[in-house]
Design a protein that fits this description.
Elements lengths: L3 E2 L2 E8 L5 E12 L5 E13 L2 E9 L1 H8 L19
Antiparallel strand pairs: 1-3, 2-3, 3-4, 4-5
Length: about 90
């Protein structure tokens, strides 16, 4: 399995009638370590709390975005060393 390297950016938080549940939307923008391919995905997650602490998370990303990033081979100008190609002059 590949290692995904990325920060998450929170885009929205939706409070629910249940005070122990919230819905969060966030995005990733990074790469897969062993393929060097970009990894940009959008997520929706259900966060469950008990006594003010997280007790469960169900996360829903687009699995096809993850699958494409895990397939070896160049994409979007990236190579396996995780660095962008030098532009030819």
């Amino acid at each position: 399995m590949g290692i995904f390297v990325f920060p998450l950016s929170l885009t929205a938080v939706h409070e629910c009638i249940d005070p122990d549940l919230l819905v969060a939307e966030y995005e990733s923008d990074g790469h897969v370590a062993h393929t060097g391919k970009p990894y940009r995905n959008a997520y929706i997650a259900l966060w469950r709390f008990r006594d003010g602490k997280v007790c469960g998370v169900k996360e829903f990303p687009n699995p096809m975005v993850a699958a494409e990033a895990l397939i070896p081979g160049p994409a979007d100008g990236w190579e396996g060393d995780n660095l962008p190609d030098d532009e030819e002059e």
